[in-house]
Amino acid sequence: KHILEMVKMTKKELLEKEEKNRIKQEKSKKTRESKKIIKEITEFLNDNNIPVDMITQSYIDEYVQMRLLLNRIDDDLATSGLVLEYTNKTGAVNFVNNPLVSERKHAANNMIKILKELSKLKKESNAKSLKTSGTKSKLNDFEAQYD
Asked: 21, 50, 73, 86: which could form a disulfide with 45 (CB 3.0–4.6 Å)?
């Protein structure tokens, strides 16, 4: 039955169907990668006692996007290489740096900025927890005993 359906389809319909399947596979791959990255960053946040709230969630989303971009750039660089051939108008062949190299550097710098912002949130969170946990008042009580 499946073979009969394929025979009835035109070449254009087959190409469209293959393209839809390819897009569907890419989306599911991207979703799996996103879930894996989210799990990693959430474990990192939990290990470092950084609360996950709306602010950190926005950083997590941004971090995931940067990681996915970085992964895609790395895949593209693996296939195309760091140097590309460029033929100018006169027909001379020149070698130029792949523009993806600078894009990769930019994405990596953005990831570092996001992680720095998350570490600032950790410092703020620790400062708040010291104030609310009564540690400061316990310290004052301890000092008062020896005055």
From this structure: 50
Of 5-9, 10-14, 61-65, 83-87, which range is least confident? 5-9
Instruction: Output the six-digit token pair for 123.
Output: 């410092």
Sign of the C-alpha dihedral, residues 119, 125, 128, 133?
A: negative
The answer, yes or no, to whether residue 63 has pLDDT greater than 70, is yes
Both tokens of 5, joined, read 């359906």
Cα-to-chain-centroid distance, residue 121? 19
12 vs 73: CA distance, rounded Å: 30
Phi, psi for residue 88 in degrees, rounded to 5: -85, 180
- Tell me if the pTM is above 0.85: no
Which residue, 26, 29, 27, 59, is CA-closest to 41?
A: 59
**Distance separating alpha carbons of residues 105 and 118, to the nearest angstrom:** 20
